[in-house]
Design a protein that fits this description.
This protein is an alpha+beta fold. The chain has two helices and three strands; from the N terminus they run H-E-E-H-E. The termini are far apart.
């Protein structure tokens, strides 16, 4: 029973850390694209694993808030 409780606590802490780190990334990398006037979270193009790591959170965020996402800067 203790190991199940420890696992649940560990997973809760990991989920909180993931959500907090995504919230930080989202807050730091928002850009308004002049072409369409919408805000986008700009994921760094390199290293690409950051995009894949936060993709689940981005899908939920986009569904809840309508935020849009882009890898690398927009090119005019």
């Amino acid at each position: 029973m203790r190991s199940l409780r420890a696992f649940a606590i560990s997973m809760t802490i990991a989920l909180f850390a993931y959500a907090a780190s995504y919230a930080y990334l989202r807050g730091q990398y928002v850009e308004r694209w002049k072409k369409d006037g919408h805000d986008y979270v700009i994921f760094p193009a390199n290293p690409i694993f950051i995009y894949y790591f936060y993709r689940p959170a981005a899908l939920v965020d986009g569904a809840l808030t309508g935020m849009r996402f882009h890898i690398g800067p927009h090119e005019e």
